[in-house]
User: Which sequence fits this backbone?
């Protein structure tokens, strides 16, 4: 498909999905997220050739939340390789993103890196790999999206830190099994900061191009992950990227992707493009309702998915 065809598809889907506004619910368990304008809606597509399509609020920054779990996991996978799978599994959890119940049966080893428990373990390892983890995360994200202005939204981070008791509980519980090594308060501080990173749809679509390009950043040809690591990360996104809605996302959309409770979703078509959508109203699983609707229409219209 030509870029002009993609542009027409995005314009049409944007107007088709707009009437869904008001059917979801903005996340309110983190007060700073509850203040976001529910009417925001943006879509960005980045092709591997370097073309950009930006529709609606595609250039407004928002809180990426759990999308950050892909960046931290990529950083740790790059350094630790397969060893990370001794501490975190690779099966869908079938449970909500912040659930505690599986952890007791599974002896403090979270099901996968994209539920909160798994992401906390990944960030714990990252803190051992990098002496200044917050700076390292920001540097990595800035590098992959080619935008040095990416920042931590301190207000969101503070708000989240004040309401992070469930994440603290997950971390302490895993620490009792020896699967968290750092001080829990220091860990939750880094974790809340990574969730507070503010990016636009255009930034996010650019940041996922190295995954669409099998581990190589097309902007400078730097290999960030081996081909096998990129495959593994994609497989994890395709099976676990949407918590207890991962199966439905695969069924409806058919792309590897990751969501966040800020209302963002990023997905990619290997070898071709990445696409980010932002609409803060969530469905009951904590995924952007209009985001999934948009992506379902996108893969249907372009008649392409990973399946
Ligand atoms: N910061 C959020 C939390 O830890 C991220 C959750 C999400 O985006 N699903 O609860």
Assistant:
């Amino acid at each position: 498909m030509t870029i002009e065809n993609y542009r027409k598809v995005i314009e049409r889907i944007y107007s088709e999905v707009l009437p869904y506004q008001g059917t979801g619910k903005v996340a309110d368990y983190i007060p700073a997220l509850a203040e976001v304008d529910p009417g925001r809606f943006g879509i960005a597509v980045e092709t591997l050739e370097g073309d950009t399509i930006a529709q609606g609020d595609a250039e407004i920054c928002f809180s990426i939340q759990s999308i950050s779990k892909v960046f931290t996991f990529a950083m740790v996978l790059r350094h630790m390789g397969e060893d990370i799978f001794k501490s975190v599994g690779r099966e869908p959890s079938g449970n909500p993103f912040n659930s505690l119940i599986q952890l007791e049966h599974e002896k403090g080893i979270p099901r996968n890196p994209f539920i909160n428990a798994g992401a906390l373990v990944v960030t714990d390892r990252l803190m051992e790999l990098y002496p200044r983890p917050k700076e390292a995360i920001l540097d990595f994200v800035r590098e992959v999206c080619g935008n040095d202005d990416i920042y931590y939204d301190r207000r969101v981070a503070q708000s989240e830190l004040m309401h992070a008791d469930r994440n603290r509980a997950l971390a302490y519980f895993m620490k009792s099994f020896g699967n968290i090594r750092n001080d829990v308060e220091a860990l939750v501080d880094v974790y809340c900061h990574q969730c507070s990173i503010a990016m636009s749809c255009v930034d996010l679509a650019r940041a996922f191009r190295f995954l669409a390009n099998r581990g190589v950043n097309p902007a400078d040809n730097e290999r960030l992950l081996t081909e096998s690591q990129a495959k593994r990360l994609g497989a994890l996104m395709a099976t676990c990227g949407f918590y207890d809605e991962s199966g439905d996302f695969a069924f409806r959309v058919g792309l590897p992707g990751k969501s966040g409770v800020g209302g963002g979703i990023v997905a990619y078509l290997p070898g071709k493009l990445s696409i980010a959508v932002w609409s803060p109203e969530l469905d009951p699983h904590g995924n952007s309702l209009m985001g999934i609707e948009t992506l379902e229409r996108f893969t249907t219209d372009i008649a392409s998915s990973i399946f």
In short: Residues 13 and 294 are 6 Å apart (CA to CA). The radius of gyration is 18 Å.
